[in-house]
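Onboarding guide, step 5: your first structure request.
Type a short instruction followed by the sequence, for example:

Predict the 3D structure of this protein.
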Amino acid sequence: MERTVHVFSSGQFERRSNTIYFETTSGEHRYLPVENVREICVHGEATFNKRFLEFLSAHEIIVHMFNRSGYYIGSFYPREHYNSGYMIVRQVEHYLDEGKRLEIARAFVSGAAKNMLRVLKYYEARGKDLSARIASIESLLEHVERRAAPVSEMMGLEGNIREQYYRSFDRILDNPHFAYERRSRRPPVNALNAMISYLNSLVYVTVLSEIYKTHLDPRIGFLHASNFRRFTLNLDVAEIFKPVLADRTLFRLIGLKMITEKDFEVSQNGIWLSEPARKRIVAEFEDKLGTTVLHRNLKRAVTYRRMIRLELYKLEKHLMGDQKYEPFVASW
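The system replies with structure tokens like these:
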């Protein structure tokens, strides 16, 4: 079975026959059968040569890289084996047509907002006073679904929705060591922002890996502008899944005290997750990705990772004119 390999140790990757070989700077080594590896996430300092990258490319394995502070810094994205000229033309057509682009962008924002509401209502049912935030998001969602706004304004509405959502975290967590204050990224100003950013990055790279297995081009997004950034479509699709995957994982980690205020390192440049903390977060996130949920249309259980792939297939059908895209909304 294919799996994601997370490497936190520093060392060197090599190809040994038809096997991925990793040796740490301390001399420990590990062999990874290539057929069992879906993707590699490098969190430590690692080196590899062209021969190794050619080997990964032949086996369609992506490498995602994070720096020591937990920031995603880039990916080795092998030659796309499933690229389709037809699909690229359809993506560009829908991007350049303002009406078609707006329809898809609105669906992304709507799906993200509805999943945020699912999260808030879940915790409201468990005694958290979130009625005011829920009402604010529902009001903003009405604007998203009814107004013929340009995509730039849709982005603004999404930002307002997410700000209301993040401001509810203080009531859900009820932990002074994980106060929200304001959204900050580079660098995060507090522990909660450091966790949000790290988990969001894990969602981004997961979606990017799933896009690689489809005919879609990750450089052509619809909500996020396709500009000089390498990838944007994964940012679009990730909006839908962040509340379900990243935020629910965050609440579990803090609620069960698997992550505490002692798991952070403070410097003049911000606050960062320690390596042991990142390892625990990755383990919980991968466990969440492997959780199965009932797919309404298929009438069978699928993992959240598979749900992301199915979401991309729905988008492909929309671009081809076969079926209107409706975003995934959690049913719990």
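Each response can be followed by summary notes, for example: The longest strand covers residues 11-16.
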